[in-house]
Amino acid sequence: MSEWMQKALEAEVNDWFRDQEPDEDHEGYYQSSLPVIIMQILSENIHLASMICSSLTEQLLVMALNELEIFLRRFREALIDYEKDHLKDRSSPKHYTLYLLTAINSCLAFQFSISNFHRQYFEDGNNDMCHQPPSSLMSALELTTKKSCSLLMGELLYDVQPQFLYVFSQSWRMGSDLIDNVCMVLDHYCKCFGRVKEPIYQILLQECQHVVVVEYLRALMEKRMVCRNSEERSQFSDKMTQDSLQLNDFFCKMGLEKSEPIMNVIPLVSDLIRVTDTTLLSLQVSDLVMKYPDISDEHVSVLLDIRGDVSKETRMTVLELLQENSRTLPEGYQSVFSNILVPTPAMAFCIPAVKCT
């Protein structure tokens, strides 16, 4: 059984390197025959055993699920090796992204097949497995699904990161449509995501949101532009608000049903930069910290630097408030700031000292 499953996996991996796009089902979703082949191998072995000796059937059922768990681990390892080959030459395999999408659909097919398999063979039994498949098996499947999604997001990140090099630059502040370039990259990927079945399509859109917002904030922290007056702060804040609205509109058009809380962080940061009364900064920062508790003193300090008008006393008051409030990450919280390092480059002003002619 194990040998046949391994051969099926090897054939699947060979397909990943084809110049041909993945096969599609009647609805246009990418599909592979791998889940059908694997479940057929298990079913045929169990059927054969039941014909030889019915008392061995239950033992073989348990063995079959164990073999499937091992197979899913190998499937995940194959995906990791697939990425390594791709990183050596990003032009190869030709359809790297599309076969990652196919792998995600295969995981969904496995989930459905495992449920049917378990219902067919176990629910009438008296053993501990009659209620649900083994947790270790479902964990292996979940990890494989997450790995496929993670590799896909890694590819998206590689393509979208260069677009953020020009955000928070002088051309950005003057109103250039740099976020349009970001949206062009996102549009390509999100249309590819449409070849993945629900609910993973929605999950991919949410993950895409997260990637984009974190990269936007990373660019903000790295550029560390400094505003010289209230007019510049207002311009800076207006542009951030415009970017946030544009990104929100994009994901709505892509069919995102529920926007992630992370999308609210850009307007909050924008408000912190815009506020005219510095005595209100403590309230602004408290609100930001309450919603995004992984923000650090260093991150807040950079935001205060960007304002360009925060006195030492006000800064100390704000930072002391952060230190006094203990912050614990709620269960299920998806990190926003914790993966953003705060560099210490030389600061540039929002508007050049000499007016543009």
Distance between the termini: 76 Å
Q: Kindly report the average pLDDT value.
A: 89
> What is the overall number of helices?
13
Order of helices and strands: HEEHHHHHHHEHHHHHE
Radius of gyration: 26 Å
Across the major sheet, the strand order is 1-2
Major sheet details = 2 strands, antiparallel
Portion in helices:
55-70%
Low-confidence sequence ranges: 352-357
Beta-strand percentage range: under 5%
Structure commentary:
This protein has 357 residues and is mostly helical. Helices cover 65% and strands 2% of the residues. The protein is built from 13 helices and four strands. The strands form two sheets. The protein has a two-stranded antiparallel sheet with strand order 1-2. It has a two-stranded parallel sheet with strand order 3-4. The longest helix has 32 residues. The C terminus is likely disordered.
